[in-house]
Amino acid sequence: MRLLLVEDNAELAEWLAKLLRRDNYTIDCVADGEDADHVLSVQDYDLVILDLTLPKLDGLQVLRRMRRRGSRTPVIILTANASLDGRVTGLDEGADDYLAKPFEIAELEARIRVQLRRAHDRTSPVISCGDLSLDTNLRQFRLGERALLLTPREHAVLEQLLLKSGQTVSKTKLSESVFGFDDDADPTAIEIYVHRVRKKLEGGRVRIVTLRGLGYLLRHEDP
Predict the structure, then answer these.
(1) How far apart are CA 107 and CA 45, in angstroms?
(2) Is 202 within 8 Å of 217 (Cβ atoms)?
(3) What is the Cα–Cα distance from 153 to 185, expressed in whole angstroms?
(4) What b/e sequence results for 14-32 when a residue is b if at least 16 CB atoms lie within 10 Å of its CB, and e otherwise?
(5) Which residue of 51, 110, 127, 222 shows the fewest CB atoms closer than 10 Å?
């Protein structure tokens, strides 16, 4: 899952990004509204965490431009303005949720999970294919009764394939889910991560299939 964090407080942004990366999210950070508007016009995200008080372009303007472009990406607003009018305005402009500063990271993490479930039209926190499952609350994969030990990038690859199980996922889409725009993205790296994940799925009833020229597909294998 790739998230965009729009926050001009560098210390807060660094702290949040570190904690969310610990949860195996890929995080991009921008510090002003113009950069956020540009990035959102050229890159797809699973969710946006948006401060309202930003340099150059405020958060509500960023949100309005997103929705005018037809973006349905979930947006959680973070702001020091906890007034009723402020919350109503943000929600009316198209925000999906609203969290006032200061906040507890556990609450933000829970709100992120709720919005991601809604975006993927899921009610259960557990996603499964064959004997592979992902508890999105714990951010933990299991293969049968065994917990899978994955690196953050292996986790990102497998999560994207599981969310689209039975469908082809292009190498480009996998790359976008794994690498933030500050990362050095090696074009061959996705093949390496897929190979490593395949090895960790051995013995299970699920398989990653390579469709040459198209991408990869995760499917249930009958015993």
Answers:
(1) 21
(2) no
(3) 12
(4) eebbeebeebbbbbbbbbb
(5) 222
User: Strand, helix or coil at 157?
Assistant: helix
Residues sharing a CB contact under 8 Å with residue 86, sequence separation 6 or more, in sequence order: 52, 79
Measured CA to CA in angstroms, residue 119 lies from 5, 57, 148, 218 at distances of 18, 26, 25, 20
Burial pattern 154-185, b for ≥16 Cβ within 10 A else e, equals bbbbbbbbbbbbeeebebebbbbbbbbeeeee
The answer, yes or no, to whether the previous bond of 55 is cis (omega within 30 of 0) is no
Helix/strand/coil for 156: helix
The residue length of the chain stands at: 223
Give the contacts of 7 (CB within 8 A, at least 6 positions apart): 13, 16, 29, 31, 49, 51, 78
| Torsion on CA atoms 173, 166, 3, 185, rounded to nearest 10 | -30
DSSP secondary structure letter of residue 109: H
Structural domains of the chain in order of their starting residue, each with its CATH number: 2-119 (3.40.50.2300), 126-220 (1.10.10.10)
pLDDT tens sequence across 50-106: 999 899 999 999 999 999 999 999 999 988 876 667 677 778 888 999 898 888 999
- State mean pLDDT over 18-46: 95
User: How confident is the model over 152-181, as pLDDT tens digits?
Assistant: 999 999 999 999 999 999 998 898 888 887
